[in-house]
Write a structure and sequence with these properties.
Length: 89
């Protein structure tokens, strides 16, 4: 996979995660970046995070344990988690 394809797919994952969070948490999408923290910056609670994990699992077929999810604190970390586990095309 070329680097541009990799960057593109990561950007696509980020866009999907950002749009999901903006809709679910009713925050402007432009407030969400890689460094945005779920709890501190977006005031997301456990249910919000659970719904995001379910969305990522359903969309990308990437399972995430509760322990893995608990360690992910930023939007960028969630995107990287999914991106690293996607099968190479």
């Amino acid at each position: 996979m070329s680097e541009s394809a990799t960057a593109s797919s990561r950007n696509e994952i980020f866009a999907k995660v950002r749009d999901h969070l903006a809709t679910e948490l009713e925050v402007p999408a432009d407030r969400i970046s890689d460094a945005t923290r779920f709890r501190e910056d977006l005031d997301a609670d456990s249910l919000d995070l659970y719904e995001l994990v379910m969305e990522l699992e359903d969309t990308y077929g990437v399972p995430m344990s509760e322990e893995e999810a608990a360690r992910i604190e930023t939007v960028g970390a969630a995107v990287d988690f999914v991106h690293a586990r996607l099968p190479a095309s």
